Amino acid sequence: MAARTKFVEYIDKNADSFIERLAQAVRIQSISSDARRRQDVIAMGNWLNDQLVSLGVTTKLVDLGTHVMQGQTLPLPPAILGKLGEDKNKRTILIYGHYDVQPALKSDGWNTDPFELVVDNEGGKLIGRGTTDDKGPIMGWLNVIEAHKSLGLDMPVNLRFCFEGMEENGSEELDECVISEVGKGKEGYFSGVDCVCISDNYWLNTRTPALTYGLRGIAYFSINITGPGQDLHSGLFGRMVHEPMTDLIKLMSRLVDNNGNILIPGVDEMVPPPTPEEIKLYKEMDYTTADVEEAAGGPIAISEDKVTVLMARMRSSSLSLHGIEGAFSDVGCKTVIPSKVGGKFSIRLVPPQTPENIIPLVKAYLESEFAKLNSKNKMFVEYLHGGKPWVADVKHWNFEAAKRAIEAIYNKTPDYTREGGSIPVTLTFAEALGVNVLLLPMGRADDGAHSTNEKLDRSNFIEGTKVLGTYLYEVAAAV
Ligand SMILES: C[C@H](N)C(=O)N[C@@H](Cc1c[nH]cn1)C(=O)O
Ligand SMILES: [Zn+2]
Ligand SMILES: [Zn+2]
């Protein structure tokens, strides 16, 4: 029996133990954006490192130093670099993933504890924070290595790994780590890398596997407004003082309109109009507004026109309002005037936008809008983190190999998509290594990444693992 057939059979036979490993990963609350959870993120890194070592991967934990977050100096979780195979006659593939997750509280609206994997056999779903983003796909790679080790099969390629624990919070210091590792040349972990594969996004719909050749960048901001020396009684001070929340709500309402148009002069204007070829591509995609509504969980698509909706996610920038730090948000009717509020928003970026060319536009606009309020409060616009957009060439053996792997496992031709989300290090890999980067998503559009009741379908986990392994065979065979 051919090695790749044995591999596929092993994945089916051992599905339950793979799900158990995913449950262990989900249990570790590796929330990178919460200072209180930093030790859990580090614990998750150590757990992942132990798994890799037990599977025969040589690893190195890179200390990325410290950073200041939520008023505390915190250790950054380590980057885990790994190596499996040194055969000069084989191609070398670099795999990236992130072991941190978004915050999740049962009270956000989860039906179950977000950090206890629920195996819903009836619905075929694996429910828990990180199942699709990005612990499931990382476990997929571990499954592939385990299968080869247990069956005594040679890996068809050499593997290199880069796993980080800060992706959901700006990937701090990772670019520097990658660039420094590349700078070590033959001595470095990335020596000889022929291409990169990242499994950290989602199919466009719930039916068709996808290959992704673009990501939006991101620029994340906070508008901080201060004035009163402390929180005030609204009965005693209402109408007597300038209120930070009132100023903030005015400013936040002037960032984006209800149709998604960005109101900051120069931001939308930077993006060139689509070419007729691009429009044709969007028209031909297997997608309807019902897909966005299914994934969003409500009939709320901004347009009924499929091309408009697809372009909104794939090739337009967008501005989203995320929350207000310092605002009263608990139950009940507290009559408070908060003294200090921070309004968080981010802008998803597409070429030629970058954080560098967007930040000055945002700051200048907010300063001029704040001046119009004639408020005696103080405003400070803070840029929190960001990353550049990325677009790849799909006419490359790396994409061809992934296409054949999907066809072999799913018996379907993949959609070619640009992802609306961001993975800051992607462009750094492409530029620093000078190689093709591919995104090979495992999950579906309705997985609820970053949301409540995040899930990964069991079939996406198991068939997705088969795709990852088969892709390695196809890379080895690619010309
Ligand atoms: C696409 C990827 N799985 C993802 O979710 N990336 C995040 C990255 C990020 C940036 N700031 C906070 N998180 C995203 O696109 O939101
Ligand atoms: Zn994410
Ligand atoms: Zn992710």
From TrEMBL:
Keywords: Hydrolase, Manganese, Metal-binding, Metalloprotease, Protease. Binds 2 manganese ions per subunit. Mn(2+) 1 binds at residues 133, 168, 450. GO terms for molecular function: metal ion binding; metallodipeptidase activity. Residues 213-371 form the Peptidase M20 dimerisation domain. SUPFAM superfamilies: Zn-dependent exopeptidases. Mn(2+) 2 binds at residues 98, 133, 200. Substrate binds at residues 200, 233, 335, 348, 422, 450. GO terms for biological process: proteolysis. InterPro entries: ArgE/DapE_CS, CNDP/DUG1, Cyt/Met_Dipeptidase, Peptidase_M20, Peptidase_M20_dimer. The active site is at residues 100, 167. The keyword Transferase does not apply. Its cofactor is Mn(2+). The record marks 233 as: Important for catalytic activity. Belongs to the peptidase M20A family. PANTHER family: BETA-ALA-HIS DIPEPTIDASE, CARNOSINE DIPEPTIDASE 2, ISOFORM A. This is Peptidase M20 dimerisation domain-containing protein. It comes from Pisolithus tinctorius Marx 270. The lineage of its organism: Eukaryota, Fungi, Dikarya, Basidiomycota, Agaricomycotina.
